[in-house]
Model the fold of this input.
Amino acid sequence: MDTPTHDPIAASGRARGFLSGAREIDDARVDIRGTLPSWLRGTHLLNGPALWELPGGRHEHWFDGYAMWHALRIADDGVRYRSRFALSDAYRRSSAAGMPVFGEFGSPNPAGLLTRLRSPQVTDNPAVVMSRHGDRWLSVTETPFLTYFDPDTLETQERLDLGHGDEVMHLMSAHGFTLADGSYLNLATALGRRCEMKLFRLRPGSARPEVLGRIAMPRSGYTHGFGLAPGHALIWETALRAQPLAFRFGSRSYAGNFRWEPRDGSAIHAVALDTGGVRTWRIPPIMAFHCTQAWGDGNDLVLELAVYDDAAVFDDLRLDRRRAGAPLKSLPRHVRYRLRADHRDADPEAIAGPAIELQQVHPWRVGRRRAQVCWGGGNGEHGEFSDRTHRIDLDGGGVSSWQRPQAIQLEPLFVPRPGGEGDDDGVLLVPTLADADDATVIGVLDARSMECLAELRTPQIVPFGFHAAFRFH
Ligand SMILES: [Fe+2]
Done:
């Protein structure tokens, strides 16, 4: 498919990462400066929005652009780059129409009232998270469509629509988990007079979700992810509440169908993976995208989150503000919630160190045991957007950081060294774009020392995305 044309829109320096214009590239050489670890062999997969403008209309929010996948194949003889648009319904139909056909996260639904009344118009644009399901790969946004793709060729494969099966599902968390047997675990929401959140499992090769647990509530909270502790899923209910009728019939954007309702506070639910039993703890009202990790500590469960005290972060991440380099108005706090068996309220505790986002721990610890180290993107002292990478010692509070001058640097993807022991034995892969860069530079850092071992210079500006993945060969 030809890449649609778009209107030129101004952004300079590092903000060029918020522009459309990335091309589908078949097989290009990636320059390596420095030395890659000899064990780092595999494919670094990146995903994110890449096209916000069509001839007849444009999107308004960073999260809205049509998804492009990027693959850096790291082999003994060098690194090669490939990119492809995800051939979602949203991309294909909007490209053919020359204008957006679906509403997206921060852009209104352009469908007319009669069309909306006939059937909900829901985007499947898989620009947010890539996950493994069995030996296959899928990509999702926050709706119950799973778009499978080939991680070598980046060709789009079939799309699984979980919204039209036996279980009603209208929304879905972007972040699922791959269990040890290859099952895909995720969380869907059925909207209605009462909402129901459904923790479900897709076994390898299966297209039929098995519901492991259900949580009923008057109005579900905006849900981007959840935590996985041994034996439990930990689900935080934000105070950004879904408005079911608006989702069903309205013309607002996805985010516009939620309303900040702090009066009733927020909650954390623990769903037992074996019995489906649910326990709930109250917390003050929060908004949160990402958990750092979850674990069990004796009879307690513990959840670490990057939390916001309101929903202003959505406005911060609008394209006009990001392309203009506007300072952030809303900054997260890093909070540890302890869920005691005999308490109704969770005990929050500030985690020492700076605020982080797009944070993570060693992936082989997730759902197994607590990790002592995490990494994430940090913001500047004056609200500069994601311009540094932090390593935080979760026991001692020690912080070390890596920063390219005048750059935006996003999610630090931790890749563990096979056979390694420590929670930080591996590298971080950090996509960056500095004011003076011609194209995206991926920093390869020693995850313990935060020393930059190598830089991978990709053949184009990879538009800023959210989450990456690494596939060992
Ligand atoms: Fe995310």
Q: What stands out?
A: The chain has one domain: 13-472. Residues 89-97 form the longest helix (9 residues). The longest strand covers residues 287-297.
